[in-house]
């Protein structure tokens, strides 16, 4: 802020403008600092990064397909499983195989989570190491 000097009026009026010169000076100094430090920060260790590959899902015959419909019914490769104890014994038999098969769980969008959780718990209880969820890929526009 500044004041008028040698004014004929006896009123000392205060000028209400901001002097932006120091602000511009600070901004120029910061700009110079960033221009100097950016090339130093860009130098990194050269690393060959892996490239992304989108491989479509392939159903292998040894994979176990478990489906849970909206009412909570469980299907093993499209065959209805009426009891969870039957599911557990079949999964325990599959868990003994080497290499161990993967379990792919397909659940309806409106299936209660409790039904999916029971299938996951039964699969873990049987000793299966790999559990995956099958989803529908998004539609391409």
UniProtKB/TrEMBL annotation:
<keyword id="KW-0997">Cell inner membrane</keyword>
<keyword id="KW-0472">Membrane</keyword>
<comment type="subunit">
    <text>The accessory proteins ExbB and ExbD seem to form a complex with TonB.</text>
</comment>
<keyword id="KW-0812">Transmembrane</keyword>
<dbReference type="Pfam" id="PF02472">
    <property type="entry name" value="ExbD"/>
</dbReference>
<keyword id="KW-1133">Transmembrane helix</keyword>
<keyword id="KW-0813">Transport</keyword>
<keyword id="KW-1003">Cell membrane</keyword>
<comment type="similarity">
    <text>Belongs to the ExbD/TolR family.</text>
</comment>
<feature type="transmembrane region" description="Helical">
    <location>
        <begin position="26"/>
        <end position="45"/>
    </location>
</feature>
<dbReference type="InterPro" id="IPR003400">
    <property type="entry name" value="ExbD"/>
</dbReference>
<protein>
    <submittedName>
        <fullName>Biopolymer transporter ExbD</fullName>
    </submittedName>
</protein>
<keyword id="KW-0653">Protein transport</keyword>
<comment type="function">
    <text>Involved in the TonB-dependent energy-dependent transport of various receptor-bound substrates.</text>
</comment>
């Amino acid at each position: 802020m500044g004041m008028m000097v040698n004014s004929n009026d006896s009123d000392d009026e205060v000028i209400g403008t901001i002097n932006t010169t120091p602000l511009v000076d600070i901004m120029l100094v910061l700009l110079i600092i960033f221009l100097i430090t950016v090339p130093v920060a860009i130098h990194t260790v050269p690393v060959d990064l892996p490239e992304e590959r989108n491989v479509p899902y392939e159903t292998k015959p040894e994979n176990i397909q478990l489906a849970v419909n909206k009412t909570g019914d469980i299907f093993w490769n499209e065959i209805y499983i009426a009891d969870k104890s039957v599911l557990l014994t079949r999964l325990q038999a599959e868990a003994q195989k080497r290499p161990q098969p993967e379990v792919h769980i397909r659940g309806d969008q409106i299936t209660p989570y409790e039904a999916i959780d029971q299938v996951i718990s039964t699969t873990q209880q049987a000793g299966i190491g790999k559990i995956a969820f099958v989803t529908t890929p998004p539609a391409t526009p």
